[in-house]
Amino acid sequence: MKLIGSAASPYVRKVRVVMAEKRLDYQFIVEDVWAPDTAISTSNPLGKVPCLVMEGGEAMFDSRVIVEYLDTLSPVGKLIPQQGRERAEVKTWEALADGVMDAGVLWRLEATWTGRADDERSQAWMDRQRGKVVAGIAAMAKGLGDKPFCSGIHLSLSDIAVGCALGWIDLRFPEIEWRAEHPKLVKLMDKLMLRPSFADTRP
Question: What is the full per-residue pLDDT of the chain (203 aa) written as tens digits?
């Protein structure tokens, strides 16, 4: 398998962490989707990463779709429950983490996209997205509570998604001091960074 992506993308990192935890072999192909000569559209018509290309050449995209598929490939380290409320809980955690990243990406694009002049940028829009990021992180802290992991006592996709989101916020928005406000999230993040899957994919 080939994984097309960016080392800084939190969505790509989520897939890479899952692949490491599942002990799956793959080739990582770095692609800048913003470059004029990007070839991502040959694999993903939406022009986004991550994109997983199978042995036969067919492509799979969207990190949520990819990680769910990867979790079925090996019984090692099951990350997503098969059914019921437990499965819905893990997928909800993933949706929360992805929502934080989605808002952060929209905020960053509004602030930095070179196709827009400074006087064309909307501070109200950026403030709205920042509010979503902050609220999402607070919801993560509340949901984690005193549990060792987001969805109980074992590592799951919930923790991987949250860890990737928080790592990206640290990278792109260091002014958001979530560590000072949410020590239990800090404890979780420190625990995740001890795992090679997280340490080796740090952006």
Answer: 999 999 999 999 999 999 999 999 999 999 999 999 999 999 999 999 999 999 999 999 999 999 999 999 988 889 999 999 999 999 999 999 999 999 999 999 999 999 999 999 999 999 999 999 999 999 999 999 999 999 989 999 999 999 999 999 999 999 999 999 999 999 999 999 999 999 999 98
Question: 53: which strand partners?
Answer: 2, 59
- Six-digit token string for 41: 């559209």
116 SS3 class: coil
Structural domains in the chain, sorted by start:
2-71 (3.40.30.10), 84-199 (1.20.1050.10)
Q: At what angle do helices 84-112 and 123-144 cross, to 10 degrees?
A: 150
What is the secondary structure of 133-166 as a DSSP string? HHHHHHHHHHHHTT-SBTTBSS--HHHHHHHHHH
Tokens read off for 125:
């829009």
Helix, strand, or coil (residue 117)? coil
Q: Give me the DSSP letters along 15-82.
A: HHHHHHHTT---EEEE--TTSTT--GGGT-TT--S-EEE-TTS-EEESHHHHHHHHHTT-STT--S-S
